[in-house]
Design goal:
Blueprint: E1 5-10, H1 18-31, E2 36-40, H2 43-48, E3 52-55, H3 82-95, E4 99-104, H4 106-117, E5 122-126, H5 142-163, E6 166-171, H6 178-187, E7 191-193, H7 201-213, E8 219-224, H8 231-242, E9 246-250, H9 262-280, E10 286-291, E11 294-299, H10 300-310, H11 316-325, H12 328-352
Parallel strand pairs: 1-2, 1-4, 4-5, 5-10, 6-8, 6-9, 7-8
Antiparallel strand pairs: 2-3, 10-11
């Protein structure tokens, strides 16, 4: 199939580096003979509403250093319905769109699968600051978010030092504590608490008390938001147990913004090019992944199943189906390797941050 027109959209939470991916998609497509590239505004909502415009090499100039997404993003419950999906398919047919590159997280990929199943080939690119797409080692926006968090904690530490305080900081990461673990190491946090690894609160409080006995004035604790409704209460318990003035801070959505780092720009560019190449080679329903530094791809359905397994969201029936298909052990080994790498980093944070 010759692709005359393709579309590109961003969906879900914004992530620094999305613009770099858009730029790479547009320039690779046009350089490969695609006649037109449509930028679809507001994700799947824009596709349903026919809200799009043609992009060219010049229209994506000077966006590589911008955070957020020039194509914007929006939630779209209508797209979850058959009627909504059929409207999106009809818009693609009316516009002559032969395929779509969808940039975002797991919800974006589910939408891409729905479109592929209805005759519109799609390729997904993982972009989410949480680094919580389990099929890939790295997602666009992760390093920029970590850099933002580390910078904010460095500033917060100045106040902690001045007032001899402890600060409990909540950072983003609903299903993955990657931001918390990595910034914990980078900023010398005395304790890190995440959803996916058991946390010994008593040991952490004893460590904090010991640090104060050793004249440490500034004390930082990092908690991932996936450890639901925990951080603020933990701050209160630290102060009650140790007598150290303790404050709770939630950085919130400031973590999503900012100028993307070099790694996010380069990774986004590599993935953007790879997505177009796969599409033009007749492939579809794939998610582009980085595995051990190599850009590769994986079937979206398999990627979504790995993600559910890693996040402990899979049902017994789903496990039985994977075993029947003969892929259970392979997927389990992938998840175990990813969990082991994360645990190794977590242990490092405990060993060297005192």
């Amino acid at each position: 199939m010759k692709f005359k027109r393709i579309g590109v959209l961003t969906s879900g939470g914004d992530a620094p580096g999305m613009n770099a991916a858009i730029r790479a998609v547009v320039r690779t497509a046009i350089g490969s003979g695609v006649e037109e590239v449509y930028g679809i505004y507001g994700g799947y909502k824009g596709l349903i509403d026919n809200d799009m415009e043609l992009l060219d090499i010049r229209s994506v100039s000077n966006i590589i250093s911008r955070g957020g997404t020039m194509l914007y993003s929006a939630r779209c419950n209508e797209f979850k319905t058959e009627e909504g999906m059929q409207r999106a398919v009809q818009v693609c047919k009316d516009r002559g769109i032969d395929g779509i590159v969808a940039i975002g997280g797991d919800g974006t990929f589910r939408g891409a699968t729905d479109l592929t199943n209805r005759g519109i080939p799609c390729i997904g690119i993982p972009a989410t600051i949480d680094n919580d797409i389990s099929s890939t080692d790295y997602t666009i926006g992760f390093e920029t978010a970590m850099t933002t968090v580390a910078d904010l904690i460095d500033k917060l530490r100045d106040t902690c030092e001045s007032h001899a305080r402890c600060s409990v900081v909540e950072v983003m990461g609903k299903y993955a504590g990657d931001i918390a673990i990595n910034t914990g190491i980078a900023t010398g946090a005395i304790a890190v608490a995440v959803r996916e690894i058991p946390f010994d609160e008593e040991k952490a409080i004893a460590k904090i008390a010991k640090a104060r006995e050793n004249k440490k004035r500034n004390i930082i604790v990092i908690v991932a938001e996936g450890k639901t409704d925990y951080a603020e209460g933990f701050a209160e318990r630290i102060e009650k147990a140790t007598g150290i003035e303790t404050r709770f801070t939630r950085f919130g959505h400031v973590q999503r913004g900012g100028i993307p780092t070099v790694r996010d720009r380069v990774t986004a560019s590599r993935m953007g090019k790879a997505a177009v190449v796969e599409l033009l080679n007749g492939k579809s329903n794939l998610v582009i992944c980085e595995r051990k530094g190599v850009i590769t791809s994986m079937d979206i359905n398999k990627a979504l199943k790995i993600d559910r397994m890693f996040k402990n969201l899979m049902t017994d029936a789903e496990y039985a189906e994977l075993e029947k298909e003969g892929v259970l052990e392979e997927m389990r080994a992938h998840c175990e390797a990813r969990a082991a790498a994360k645990l190794e980093l977590y242990k490092l944070s405990e060993e060297i941050c005192k």
